[in-house]
Amino acid sequence: MSSSPSSKLIDFASDHEDEDSPLGHHHHHHHHHVVRNPIAQHHPFNDTTNDYADSNVIIEDGSSNDGQNGNGSDAHAGSSSLLRVVSVPMMIGMCFFSVSGGPYGMEGLFSSAPPLIVLISFVLLPWVWSLCLSFVTIELSLLYPEDGGSPIWISQAFRPLMQAHPFSLNNEEAKSSNSSSSTHSSTVSSSSSPSISSSSPLLSSTHLPSASSTSSMTFSRKKFHASNFISFVYTFVYWCVYQLDGALYPIIILQYVAQIASAYGISDTITSASGMTWQGWLVCLVVVSLVTAFNLTGAAIVGGASIVLGILTMSPFVCVVILAFVRGYINSSSWGIWTSMEGSDDMNLGLFISMVVWNAIGWEDVATVAGEVANPARTFSRALPLAVVLDTLSNLVPLAIGFCVHPVQDDWQEGYFGQIAQILGGAPLATILSLGGIISNLGLLNSDMCASSRVLFWWAKTDMLPSKVSNLLGKLYFKRHVPVFSVLFNSAIVLCLVWIPFDLLLEFDVVAMSLCYLIVFISFVRLRFVDADAHRDFKLPGSKWVSIIYVLPPTALLLLQLIYASSTAWICAGGLVGLSIVMFLLNWKLNNRLPHHHKA
Question: What global pTM score does this model have?
């Protein structure tokens, strides 16, 4: 657990550089060791006048904890002013809801492809997608253990090559740093606080940027780097994808509420074939308000809620599986049902790939709270592989058992698990399963809002947005260290987007997310080249050239998805990219300045 908020003093005052020290400025007469914020310092959009860009973290308390002093990766995490509270079980729960949230909505796989193809896809998907993306997430989250996720990776991958990695030093700089450090006190002390040894990972010189290798940012009306443009466009599109995702879940919850109402003969006034109704929007308001309340309490509550919601989500499927065995639906002929290629002539490959991709995206979402993870190296490396196994089994087993109960492909459409529950347990089990669908989408929205608010929070700490907007969205609620205005702003956007037709939202979302993933994979490979010598607490084995092989399978799947995407989805995604470009140019014009890099 992280130390109490009162034990640390976050000083965002501007710092004066000490040119004689390779580690930056030292307040000798106050006996404080000052550590720069390396992520903020090296981001291409940082302004030397920005409060966040030159922030210092003054360690006033020497107490150690797993979240900050447990391993090497936390050495560069000390600059974060967020509490490190997310544990392994919490991260597994957040992964579960960041990806699929259970098999709800996956019934249409059987009507779009033969059972054997569905089976093969579930066997191959962890290897060609889930594990690849989760391992990329682990490596890059530990390389940049800050809240924000993939936008940080992109900004660092495409930064000007003369900028050093924030947490790397060459050998000569390391020697110089160690030599300089040895001339000062080996402890960090104050009259009221215990000491921290100079060998503490948080203060280790091998993880601190040297003054000679760092760069500051200024602004010019004449020059700019492509990294600024790429980072802005990606971050804007990526954040918009989160909002599109978030708008889908309240709409799906409305459908489950309508199912329960119709099952008990209650007239449905909240849904309409023509689109959203005001009654339905009020239900969405209640749902979004509930999830917003969860998020305002902090990442620990979000993670804990994900565990509870995950158990409640999968409980009805446990009943379905048990009843299927008890009532004899699983027998020697079941394997023949699964290996059937019936319907191969009418296979809708485009729809099938879209559904597979849609239900497998989201593994990188947990990186958005990397700055709030306790003992990141241990938590990420354990939680994500376990989450891959859990996600695969939680989808495969209910689908396999359910299809054995009713092996008629054409009947399997979205929401058909309710009929399977009706066959096995009558109306009570069908109602419980519909309630499980509501809980699943609450969990999905809960995780989505947590991730999107951290992306917006990181965005506010850069100079991508106007200063007044950045100051508002970058504020933290002190007790919980929650980006409160980022959470509230995202909630408002979601409530506006629920008026868009569901099918358009879904198509738009999948294509835009696929484009984002392509940039993520390119960034992963590029970081292996430009930061080849950077310290990594987790690294996929092999040389930098081998990294290309790692991302080939998921990239191929994404390209297939994009090939079969509809023209409407492409037009919407293209419009979103175009809007991001306009936003970039507008921000440039309003500020009458353009970021560029220069040596400090």
Answer: 0.74
